Amino acid sequence: MSEPTDFLLAVEALTVSFDGFKAVDDLSFYVDPGEIRVIIGPNGAGKTTALDLICGKTRATSGSIRFRGKELTDMKEHEIVHAGVGRKFQNPTIYEDLSVFENLEVSFPRGRSVFGALVFKRDAEVRERVAEIAEMIFLTDHLEDRAEYLSHGQKQWLEIGMLLIQDPELLMLDEPVAGMSGSERIKTAELLHKIIEGRSVIVIEHDMKFVEDIAHKVTVLHQGRVISEGSMAHVQADPKVVEVYLGH
Ligand SMILES: Nc1ncnc2c1ncn2[C@@H]1O[C@H](COP(=O)(O)OP(=O)(O)OP(=O)(O)O)[C@@H](O)[C@H]1O
Predict the structure, then answer these.
(1) C-beta of 44 in contact with ligand 1 (< 6 A)
(2) Which of 18, 222, 225 to mutate to test the pocket of ligand 1 (most atoms within 8 A of CB)?
(3) Helix (H) or strand (E) holding 209
(4) Nearest alpha-carbon partner for 228 in 215, 244, 212
(5) How do the domains of the chain map onto residue ranges?
(6) ipTM for this model
(7) Does domain 1-84+171-181+204-248 have CATH number 3.40.50.300?
């Protein structure tokens, strides 16, 4: 059996209760390094709440969330970001009046660069990293464009880029392809396969074709609990999953 520290993320017996209603109820799941995990489940299953708990936006009532062996449940949101967990919400939160370059530049983590002698070197490093990320998110030709003129899909990619530039070890994406065209969805799947080198990704998604394209493993939630887990083929054939989806 694996030790808990072998997992990048170990969620165990996680519960949150809102006025007695358990939106997440005794939830356990484990994510490996380099894994793309997709969480699916009907509306209200607790998917978004689970991500809110991991990133510290919502406090757990009980249970544990260990990231590289470190307990997250008693950490503040910014400490969790600093520990290496990036979260993208459903609606893009980019700076509309800044260019693509500037959006990526402001997201570059600030370190010890305030020392004068390092500034020049730092600028070159930032430009290089922005160029690298822009290429990854298919926006090299739009670096000077104001973000407000990007398509909805491009805005989603830009926000993913703003997280990637911080080099998180765990990236969590809530419905990243919602509102995207078919070709944008294919490119987003490509992007996810590219970025998992050295990190893991958790995605909440409703588009089953997209889930099939990206998931290494699927976790199915219902009423705050895991009802099935495994490959896409495994969960699709699971009578409990069929029942939950068809019964609604
Ligand atoms: N802060 C809160 N206070 C009270 N109830 C909440 C709160 N946050 C979420 N809930 C409830 O918890 C349940 C789970 O919500 P959640 O948004 O996590 O579901 P979801 O699986 O992400 O659904 P969807 O697919 O519709 O986004 C819902 O019944 C929701 O109304």
Answers:
(1) yes
(2) 18
(3) helix 208-214
(4) 244
(5) 1-84+171-181+204-248, 88-167
(6) 0.94
(7) yes
